[in-house]
Design brief:
The complex is a heterodimer of chains A (123) and B (523). With 123 residues, chain A is of the alpha+beta class. Chain A starts with a strand and ends with a helix. Chain B is α/β, with parallel strands linked by helices. In chain B, helix 6 crosses helix 7. Chain B has 14 helices and twelve strands. The two termini of chain B are 20 Å apart. The chains are: A alpha+beta (123), B alpha/beta (523). At the A-B interface, loops of A face helix 14 of B.
């Protein structure tokens, strides 16, 4: 299952026709304790780079952007009860939403794990 | 009537266990004259009352059509001394500009001169009502009109909308003027550009007014990236919202070039004037090509804010935007008296394109009188000195700390009204929050933290012109000590504050599971 990263610190897992999106460990580390997550509702049409979700920590509120075009098929309801999942398991249980892959070619512009690591090291 | 529990003492209350104060615990839970204060609900009882009303022989009858309450309202009754002591004790646990240095960056927490209060309490200003006949409030209208002209003169602008109630309300007023002007020329646009160095309310304002917001990056020196801005300008851009001086504490020295480029692209320039204190009497935003700017009277012109009073955010407008400014505004009639221009008489002044109103009435009278008093008592030369002293004080703080605290834009030249530091160089896993909590032990309200976002662990310190050199030196001595401890990774800072009435509160839990409603205990 290939995983891609954006320079806005989102990760996206591609599995067949579906993709799962969350924020990276680096992102949650920078944000600090997450206190609230606002997720897109199922059926929302997302554009690459457009606002998809909002994550709020004790320090700041930040937008989470969609890595690709697509339609939201599922949101991680567990985050509404327990936003701390984003801190404890950002790249697994703390996933944000699942979406269709509107344009697979958009994945090509994203970073792979090694590329993202180098990007973070450069910050 | 039950005997009320005057002190609020409860048997389970003991002196704080985590206190580092030596000596025996007190029975009351108080520490010397620093008193523990429970909630009103815990002091009073719903069965008691603090007032003694005579029996009435007036037939009350039921005039509520069956909607009257059937249950007690559940508010506690308290005697007058209990009530007064409660609020006085709470006030002692508060921190305000009247207690000490309040370095909250971008908030301009300056001293509120008592002369302002004296004037605001004069009956002709304090006891007027917006629905009084205009002929009975000539003096109040004259004062609003004079303040309006001061604001226009100080900013080099063409008109002013006095009614907005605070900064973000003023931003909305300015953006609505811009929208009205663009729509009037049949050129409704979609995008508002907001640089990273702008205030956080700016993108919120633009979005609220129906625009899409796009960021413009900051340069390495903390200013707007002019080339990136120019590259993004186009026929879809309605406005650029710039904060000047910006949230990095720097003057946007390319402001004129920015305005020229924005105007050339057919868009308009909104300037967030929250930081006007640094340039009042020195720079006129109108000369820099600004089309609209709000002025926080409660910052620059010393009217109380925070817990102390309402804000007031008049918006000055360029010649291009003035025709679209909201009603009402003051004007002098041919007979020489000041009156309010409203919908009924707007045509007499050729002001037929107002986008509407921001408020029902004319604005915050109490803040107008205080701000005008401040201007009249300082004079133009005094206001210029305010800006100079505010900038001098901020630079004194910046250069007195920049060897111990990381100053990311320290090489970008002098700062304006505020000094910006980051957490680079802190030892262990200490954070800006830890240093801020330790400031409370030192007796200081912490600075603005984690903003602006472009600096990691940002600490934004605005001393204002209020502080003497002696006060700044004391503050700097405390900050140097804290900075040294932070660099050394002093783990005890993670426990701070030690000396406050409460130790470190769990802010994460407070945000995740807030308890917003007091519930009576079952006892």
């Amino acid at each position: 299952m290939p995983r891609y990263f954006t320079d806005e610190h989102e990760w996206i897992d591609v599995e067949g026709e579906s993709a799962t999106v969350g924020i990276t460990d680096y992102a949650q580390e920078q944000l600090g304790d997450i206190v609230f997550v606002e997720l897109p509702s199922v059926g929302t049409m997302l554009d690459k780079g457009g606002d998809a979700a909002v994550v709020e920590s004790v320090k700041a509120a930040s937008d989470v952007y969609s890595p690709i075009n697509g339609e939201v098929t599922e949101a991680n309801g567990a985050l509404e009860d327990d936003p701390a999942l984003v801190n404890t398991s950002p790249e697994d249980e703390g996933w944000f939403f699942r979406m269709t892959i509107g344009d697979a070619s958009q994945l090509e512009g994203l970073m792979d794990e090694a590329g993202y690591k180098a990007f973070v090291d450069s910050l | 009537m039950n005997s009320p529990n005057q002190s609020g003492w409860k048997p389970e209350m003991n002196a704080s266990e985590d206190s580092i104060h030596s000596g025996p615990a007190t029975v009351s839970g108080n520490r010397a004259l620093m008193l523990e204060e429970p909630l009103l609900f815990e002091i009073g009882h719903i069965e008691t009352t603090g007032v003694d009303l005579p029996d009435t022989d007036i037939a009350v009858g039921n005039r509520l059509g069956g909607m009257e309450r059937s249950d007690p309202i559940g508010l506690p009754g308290l005697s007058e001394p209990e009530t007064i002591r409660h609020y006085t004790r709470l006030s002692r646990q508060n921190y305000g500009i009247d207690l000490g240095l309040f370095p909250l960056g971008s908030c301009t927490m300056k001293h509120n001169p008592r002369l302002n209060e004296k004037v605001a309490r004069m009956p002709g200003f304090a006891d007027v009502h917006p629905l009084q006949p205009a002929s009975t409030i000539r003096g109040a209208l004259e004062a609003i009109n004079e303040l309006a002209h001061w604001l226009i003169d100080l900013t080099g602008m063409h008109g002013v909308a006095m009614s907005p109630k605070a900064g973000a309300h003023g931003e909305l007023c300015g953006i609505l003027c811009i929208r009205a002007a663009l729509e009037a020329r049949g050129d409704a646009r979609e995008i508002v550009l907001v640089p990273e160095s702008a205030h956080g309310t700016n993108p919120a304002t633009a979005a609220f007014a129906g625009y899409r917001v796009e960021d413009i990056p900051a340069t390495d020196e903390g200013r707007v990236d002019l080339e990136a801005l120019k590259a993004r300008l186009g026929p879809d851009v309605a406005a650029v919202m710039i904060t000047n001086p910006n949230t990095c504490g720097l003057f946007e020295r390319d402001m004129k070039a920015i305005s020229d480029a924005v105007h050339e692209a057919g868009a308009l320039v909104y300037c967030d004037g929250a930081n006007f204190n640094a340039i009042v009497g020195k720079v006129r935003p109108g000369d820099l090509g600004v089309d609209a700017m709000h002025i926080n009277l409660h910052k620059t012109f010393s009217t109380p804010h925070g817990g102390g009073g309402p804000g007031s955010g008049p918006v000055v407008l360029s010649e291009a935007l003035s025709p679209y400014g909201p009603l009402p505004f003051t004007a002098r009639t041919k007979e020489g008296v000041v009156h309010l221009v409203e919908e009924e008489n707007a045509a007499d002044y050729g002001h037929t394109d107002a986008f509407g109103r921001m408020t029902a009435f004319h604005g915050q009278m109490g803040m107008f009188t205080r701000a005008l008093t401040y201007m009249r008592s300082h004079g133009a030369d005094g206001l210029r000195q305010v800006a100079e002293d505010a900038v001098l004080n901020a630079n004194y703080v910046l250069r007195s700390l920049d060897d111990l605290l990381d100053a990311p834009f320290g090489a970008s030249g002098p700062c304006m009204h505020e000094a910006l530091f980051g957490d680079e160089g802190f030892g262990g896993d200490l954070s800006t929050l830890d240093l801020a909590k330790a400031m409370i032990d030192e007796g200081y309200h912490p600075m603005t933290m984690y903003f602006p976002l472009v600096v990691h662990g940002a600490m934004l310190i605005e001393p204002t012109e209020t502080e003497s050199k002696a006060a700044l030196d004391q503050f700097i001595a405390s900050m140097r000590s804290l900075a040294e401890r932070a660099r050394a990774g002093d783990e005890s800072m993670k426990q701070a504050p030690f000396h406050a009435p409460r130790r470190r509160l769990d802010e994460t839990q407070a945000a995740r599971k807030p308890v917003l409603v007091w519930e009576p205990s079952d006892e």
